[in-house]
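Hey team,

Filing this mostly as a record. A colleague (T.K.) asked me to run one chain through the structure pipeline before their review meeting, and I want the input and output archived in the tracker in case anyone asks later how it was produced. No errors, nothing strange. Just documentation.

Input sequence:
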Amino acid sequence: MAELIVTQVRSAIGQKPKHRGTLRALGLGRIGKSNVLPDRPEIRGMIGRVPHLVEVAEVATGAEAGR
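Output structure:
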């Protein structure tokens, strides 16, 4: 299964409370912090709520890395 590296690139100060909560749920909290998450629809939905605050990179793992 592919994984996503999600990195916070902008501050949550001044953002809506739901946006700040979404960052927390993604395991982020300060600029520059990254987290590796599975590439699932729930995670994609959370990222879609805060695209202006994060950067996303895909990482292939396991059998996919050898292709």
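Quick notes for T.K.: The chain has a mean pLDDT of 93. The chain has two helices and three strands.
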